[in-house]
From TrEMBL:
Pfam families: Trypsin_2 (PF13365). The chain crosses the membrane at residues 35-56. Residues 1-31 are annotated as: Disordered. It comes from the Bacteria. This is Serine protease. One of its GO terms (biological process) is proteolysis. Signal peptide: none annotated. GO terms for molecular function: serine-type endopeptidase activity. SUPFAM superfamilies: Trypsin-like serine proteases (SSF50494). Keywords: Hydrolase, Membrane, Protease, Serine protease, Transmembrane, Transmembrane helix. InterPro entries: Peptidase_S1_PA (IPR009003), Peptidase_S1_PA_chymotrypsin (IPR043504), Peptidase_S1C (IPR001940). It comes from Marinococcus halophilus.
């Protein structure tokens, strides 16, 4: 129905203007944009915080300390020769790739690493000096000692000599490995003690050090790093004595 022109009377059934109550106001586009910006800023801040935490954890003071020590040690000719025999090993399982450290032994052409580095791997490959990958096969493992012998399909020049027996407590060693994503890191330490069939080292050992050789002043491998331990008075590396390495290599050669 319509209102008659010039007449104040209302047609029956027509609602009065005051009957129309305004609904709740719609949020403006500017407010919605502001909300989106706040969420985006919050997410960006969280990502920046996580990245900063990772960088701080990676480049903490003790990390800078062992990198500085490695730089000085790497100037020595003998250390440079050992570094050529130490490299990364890549293990692939169901498409997932992980890396560890290992080294070549002078004589039997065997590559030594930790069992937990190659455990359940579908394939393994060793990184060459040129950055390429040389395919290999796991020939023997010692799960209890956490050792593995890998043989390459191609010849590798150079290696480190194994000591006949492990060094005693108090002996100086140099540990060479690839901790925290770095390569050819060399650090000096000593054998603190021998216990439960393992060597305890005060040399810096971090994630990625697994499979690193502990080399004596005579230039011979006395043990293979497999883990680290944090005690009240500091952080220590744990290494498998070289005698277990000899046993595993002999097992490989007698196959």
């Amino acid at each position: 129905m319509r209102r008659d022109e010039g007449n104040d009377e209302h047609v029956e059934g027509e609602p009065e203007p005051e009957d129309f109550e305004p609904g709740p106001p719609r949020p403006s586009k500017n407010k919605r944009r502001g909300l989106f910006r706040a969420v985006a800023v919050l997410m960006t801040g969280m990502l920046i915080f996580q990245s900063a935490y990772y960088l701080i954890d990676t480049f903490r003071l003790d990390t800078w300390s062992f990198l500085t020590a490695s730089y000085q040690l790497s100037k020595q000719e003998d250390v440079q020769q050992w570094q050529q025999a130490v490299t990364k090993i890549r293990a692939t399982e169901n498409g997932e790739t992980s890396f560890g450290t290992g080294f070549f032994v002078e004589g039997p052409d065997a590559f030594i690493t930790n069992y937990h580095v190659v455990e359940r791997a579908d394939s393994v490959a060793v990184e060459t000096e040129e950055g390429d990958l040389a395919e290999g096969t796991v020939e023997a493992v010692d799960e209890q000692a956490d050792l593995a012998v890998v043989m390459l399909k191609e010849k590798w020049e150079g290696g480190i000599t194994l000591a006949k027996t492990s060094a005693s407590a108090g002996s100086d060693v140099i540990v060479i490995g690839n901790p925290l994503g770095f390569s050819d890191v060399a650090n000096r330490g000593s054998i603190v003690e021998t216990e439960k069939g393992r060597l305890v080292l005060d040399a810096p050992v971090f994630n990625g050090s697994s499979g690193s050789p502990a080399i004596t002043a005579a230039g011979k491998v006395t043990g293979v790093v497999f883990a680290s331990s944090t005690e009240e008075n500091g952080r220590y590396g744990l290494a498998v004595p070289v005698e277990r390495v000899h046993e595993l290599i002999n097992e490989t050669e007698n196959k």
